[in-house]
């Protein structure tokens, strides 16, 4: 069910319209919006070809919202809760958090406990009247800031072991040092640049740090999730788990057979295939929610509404929690505008925000890996990136398990897009849940088709509850 903003506001505030023509205040051209809506809801090819665009940006595959497959649940069988409404305190808190993501992009995760700007972010988000991120004793702290639903993922360093350890692509070993973006360089902070991007004009060319680094900050994490392919992180985690001889889950067949080993079923070939399959099929469920059900606006679009409201040029009904937020002053001091700074010059992709496709894929991949591997197994030789990202240092702290680090990996993927400014917290959290739900339904079908003596998969969900499939 959608949140009603499409009917509530004639200007279509709170609805995705990037790539269509907009006026000088960033309000979408209504005839163009109607043509786009008609095409999405009544999927005839010619309707899509008649959508008026504002520039060169093409809409990202809206017809895929109607695609179906013969395995796994159909897209419309899975549900998502409605996202926050445009004028709500919940939406305001999500937007404030994204401004803090932008303000803290270049602060190393290792410095969160001591950085004064992190302390200000924690204090402001704690004061928000409807902030729904994790807290400790009723307050946001450096150890809960920008974290997700999984309690297990909040143990240890912010970045999962599966995003810093070498990737064993036998016979090749691949260090996970990445080409990251230049620190301190954000995009779409000028109103004219922002409007050009909303109209689908060509974006600037990004600039890069000349030194490869391990992921150590929000900017690094956002750039990792800028360049990855769909199930890259899940595939690399699978290879890592097999290389370190992580034990399979106790319910998986063949572990106790004296004559057989798994391969095509319940072995490496099957698990690699499983990760790739749930990645693509769950993404179709995400596209159904994005285009047909919610069409929720990207954060950069609401950042425009904040800028025009704070500048006195528009009276959009934004909640006071965002209009009075301290972080807007931080952004204005840096950029002389109230727009939401983007980590990518092009801003968001050309499809609606909710849910995050990255989150859906990551949730599905992590779920099937938790079903296949022993979640409680403690990872050996854990490491963390130095504050400058130039070295890996031994991690000395609480034990890190397969299940907790898979949860953390999925949340890193999802929140990496939030650090970029292209997704909301609920895009990430509910996207992970949608991927999880799809993967569970897929595992149920897989169990029914297995010839082996198999009692079922067991796993821990992101909310901490246990499930046997």
Offer a concise description of the structure.
41% of the residues lie in helices and 4% in strands.
Order of helices and strands: HHHHHEEHHHHHHHHEEHHEE
Structural class by sheet pairing and helices: mainly alpha
Task: Walk across the major sheet and give the strand order.
Answer: 1-2
Proportion of β residues? under 5%
Largest sheet: 2 strands, antiparallel
The DSSP helix count reads 15
> In total, how many beta strands?
6
Shape field = globular
Low-confidence stretches: none
Residue-averaged pLDDT = 97
**Any idea what the radius of gyration is?**
22 Å
The amount of helix comes to 40-55%
Distance between the termini: 27 Å
Describe this structure in words.
- There is one protein chain.
- The chain is mostly helical.
- The protein is built from 15 helices and 6 strands.
- It has helices spanning 5-8, 30-41, 45-49, 89-103, 116-127, 191-198, 218-227, 232-243, 268-294, 299-310, 320-323, 326-335, 357-372, 402-420, 425-448, and strands spanning 167-169, 172-174, 383-385, 392-394, 458-460, 466-468.
- A two-stranded antiparallel ribbon has the order 1-2. Strands 3-4 form a two-stranded antiparallel sheet.
- Strand 3 (383-385) and strand 4 (392-394) form a beta hairpin.
- Helix 8 (232-243) packs antiparallel against helix 9 and helix 13 runs antiparallel to helix 14.
- The longest helix has 27 residues, at 268-294.
- The protein is globular, with a radius of gyration of 22 Å.
- The two termini are 27 Å apart.
């Amino acid at each position: 069910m959608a949140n009603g903003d499409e009917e509530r506001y004639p200007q279509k505030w709170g609805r995705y319209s990037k790539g269509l023509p907009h006026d000088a205040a960033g309000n979408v051209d209504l005839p163009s919006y109607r043509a786009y809506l008609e095409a999405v809801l009544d999927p005839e090819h010619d309707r899509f070809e008649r959508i008026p665009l504002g520039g060169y940006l093409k809409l990202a595959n809206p017809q895929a919202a109607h695609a179906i497959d013969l395995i796994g649940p159909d897209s419309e069988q899975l549900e998502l809760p409605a996202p926050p409404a445009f004028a709500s305190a919940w939406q305001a808190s999500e937007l404030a958090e994204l401004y803090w993501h932008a303000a803290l992009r270049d602060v190393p995760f290792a410095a969160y406990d001591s950085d004064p700007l992190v302390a200000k972010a924690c204090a402001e988000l704690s004061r928000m009247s409807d902030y729904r991120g994790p807290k400790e004793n009723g307050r946001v702290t450096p150890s809960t800031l920008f974290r997700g639903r999984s309690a297990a993922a909040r143990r240890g360093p912010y970045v999962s072991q599966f995003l810093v350890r070498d990737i064993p692509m036998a016979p090749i070993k691949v260090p996970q040092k990445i080409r990251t973006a230049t620190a301190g360089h954000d995009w779409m902070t000028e109103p004219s640049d922002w409007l050009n991007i909303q109209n689908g004009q060509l974006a600037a060319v990004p600039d890069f740090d000349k030194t490869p680094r391990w992921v150590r900050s929000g900017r690094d994490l956002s750039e990792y999730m800028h360049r990855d392919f769909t199930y890259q992180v899940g595939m690399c985690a699978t290879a890592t788990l097999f290389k370190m001889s992580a034990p399979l889950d106790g319910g998986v067949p063949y572990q106790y057979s004296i004559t057989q080993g798994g391969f095509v079923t319940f072995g490496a070939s099957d698990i690699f295939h499983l990760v790739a399959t749930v990645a693509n099929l769950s993404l179709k469920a995400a596209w159904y929610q994005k285009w047909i059900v919610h069409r929720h606006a990207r954060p950069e679009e609401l950042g425009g509404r904040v800028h025009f409201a704070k500048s006195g040029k528009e009276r959009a009904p934004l909640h006071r929690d965002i209009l009075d937020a301290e972080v807007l002053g931080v952004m204005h001091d840096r950029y002389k505008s109230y727009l939401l700074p983007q980590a990518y010059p092009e801003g968001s992709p050309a499809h609606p925000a909710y849910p995050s496709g990255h989150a859906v894929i990551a949730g599905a991949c992590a779920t099937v890996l938790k079903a296949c591997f022993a979640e409680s197994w403690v990872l050996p030789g854990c490491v963390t990136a130095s504050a400058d990202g130039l070295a890996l240092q031994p991690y000395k702290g609480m034990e890190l398990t397969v299940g907790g680090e898979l949860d953390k990996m999925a949340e890193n993927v999802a929140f990496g897009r939030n650090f970029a400014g292209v997704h909301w917290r609920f895009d990430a959290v509910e996207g992970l849940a949608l991927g999880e739900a799809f993967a569970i339904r897929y595992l149920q079908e897989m169990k029914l088709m297995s010839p082996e003596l198999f009692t079922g998969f067991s796993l821990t969900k992101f909310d901490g509850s246990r499930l046997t499939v």
